[in-house]
Design goal:
The complex is a heterodimer of chains A (267) and B (215). Chain A is of the alpha+beta class and 267 residues long. Chain A contains 7 helices and 12 strands. The longest helix of chain A is centred in the middle third of the chain and has 8 residues. The radius of gyration of chain A is 17 Å and the shape is globular. Chain B has one domain. Chain B has 11 helices and no strands. Classes of the chains: A alpha+beta (267), B mainly alpha (215). At the A-B interface, α1 of A face α2, α3, α5 and α6 of B.
Chain lengths: 267, 215
């Protein structure tokens, strides 16, 4: 459908793509279970139409934005990004989507705003994982406003030119390619522009292991495993471990956002 | 006149003729399947696994072998309890089950070293020293090594049964470390590892007297 189209982009990598099967059968989406194949198995229960995104907080035009209205207003591009999970595996994914900045500008970000918070749909009757309380639902994430407005930051609505499947965060999800995957919150229903740092689910559960920034950084280890290297999914039994680049390879584009910051402190 | 047979006595009669080699053989089958599957995959001759291992086969094997280790460990540790509480005479199966536990732990560790970490010794060494769940898993493995090496009649004779039994109490801490290792690998409190941990704690509590030095 319309959500899955787009043009090529200067921001895309030319690395080998992961297959549709790999991208859609190996997911972390704890709303549908903690196993990697659980989301593909159970996400079919999720109703994604009708869908609207509530944009509130420090914006000129707060309100519930219908998904179709958003899609009519946005330009869909293809963005081929590296995707690095905090669990030290990675993929290369051809997303289709639009820049988050365009959506935020549509709502009109007010002066003094510093952060953007996001929430995933809360609907335990369709998302059975939400019946267990290992995460304080709904799943939430946050970015600094400059991170949110960065051209690399997109709302993805498609993969491989097709509408994004439920297990990957239908109908629209955040993608921030220089941060660990859990920052790229799925099935977004709420965006709040604010001047205080928003809550982020993994940071709430275990702040020692998951920082607010969670930028991909091979020099700052997760307390329970090294982040120096990663396994590229899809190489079969002998998938090669490869070194993890700073900011997941987007250092040139995003390093300036963190100038003067101690990345070990602000992990 | 003979009394009617109790249920444990009946079970003992049924199980008595089963030879231990059969336990070794059946117990080793999943491991052999994995080893042969990997060998065939490496040589590119045949795909024994098909789609069964999913998108990340190395991780799937690693987890599967870890679970098998715990399952065999639980079976091993249940034998003495079945004897004490239910008079089931399964002691001859304890050594095969114990050695099979070690076999699966070694395979689990090999997959980590080889397919997962790919011989990156410095990263692995750092992980062993720094990461509690890996430290705990490694410690559990280290405790099992002397047990595996002395799981033979010659060692019992050489050491004497008392010293041998004392050494083999190391199985208890190793058992607990294995279950804790599994719980700690997860990012959240998952149900399955906690069930394993609960089983391990229950089994240990049934045997806690054995852990105390004899007075």
């Amino acid at each position: 459908g319309i959500a899955g189209q787009g043009f090529a982009s200067q921001y895309s990598t030319e690395e080998d793509l992961n297959s549709w099967e790999e991208i859609t059968q190996y997911n972390n989406f704890y709303e549908f279970g903690t196993g990697k194949s659980d989301p593909a198995e159970y996400a079919g229960a999720l109703t994604t139409s009708p869908w609207s995104v509530e944009i509130d907080g420090m914006v000129d035009k707060p309100g519930a934005y219908d998904f179709k209205t958003i899609m009519d207003a946005m330009t869909i591009e293809e963005r081929i990004y590296r995707f690095r999970c905090v669990e030290a595996w990675s993929m290369v994914i051809p997303w289709n989507g639009f820049e988050l900045a365009d959506l935020l500008n549509m709502a009109g970000v007010q002066d003094g705003a510093k952060y953007v918070g996001f929430e995933t749909l809360l609907r335990p009757e369709e998302m059975w994982g939400q019946k267990r309380n290992f995460i304080p639902w709904p799943y939430r994430e946050g970015l600094r406003l400059d991170e949110a407005m960065h051209p690399l930051t997109i709302m993805a609505t498609g993969i491989y030119g097709k509408d994004i499947p439920n297990q990957n965060g239908a109908p629209l999800r955040l993608v921030v390619p220089w941060k660990y995957g859990f920052k790229s919150i799925k099935s977004v229903v709420k965006i709040t522009v604010t001047d205080t740092q928003p809550e982020a689910s993994w940071n709430m559960i275990n702040p020692r292991e998951y920082g607010f920034y969670s930028n991909v950084n091979p020099e700052v280890d997760h307390p329970r495993w090294s982040q120096a290297s990663e396994r590229r999914v899809g190489g079969g039994l002998l998938a090669k471990r490869i070194p993890t680049p700073m900011f997941n390879g987007y250092e040139e584009q995003v390093a300036s956002l963190y100038e003067g910051m101690d990345l070990r402190e602000n992990f | 006149m003979s009394h009617p047979l109790t249920l444990p006595e009946r079970v003992n009669i049924v199980l008595r003729p089963i030879p231990t080699w059969l336990v070794y053989l059946i117990g080793a089958l999943p491991g052999l399947y994995i080893v042969v599957g990997i060998a065939l995959a490496l040589t590119g001759t045949y795909d024994l696994f098909g789609n069964r291992l999913g998108i990340d086969p190395a991780k799937t094997l690693e987890h599967w072998l870890g679970e098998l280790s715990l399952q065999f460990f639980i079976a091993t540790m249940t034998i003495s309890i079945l004897r004490d509480k239910f008079r089931l005479k399964l002691i001859k199966f304890r050594r095969p089950l114990g050695l099979l536990t070690f076999f699966y732990v070694v395979l689990h560790l090999s997959i980590w070293v080889w397919l997962d970490m790919q011989w990156r010794w410095s990263e692995m060494w750092a992980d062993i020293l720094k990461r509690p769940y890996i430290t705990i898993g490694m410690l559990g493995f280290a405790l099992l090594i002397p047990l595996a090496l002395t799981s033979n009649n010659a060692s019992i004779r050489k050491m004497g049964p008392m010293a041998w039994q004392k050494l083999h109490k190391l199985a208890y801490p190793a058992f607990l470390l294995g279950a804790i290792h599994y719980v700690m690998v997860q990012k959240v409190w998952e149900v399955e590892p906690l069930i394993y941990l609960a089983i391990v704690i229950i089994l240990l509590s049934l045997r806690w007297r054995r852990l105390l030095p004899r007075s």
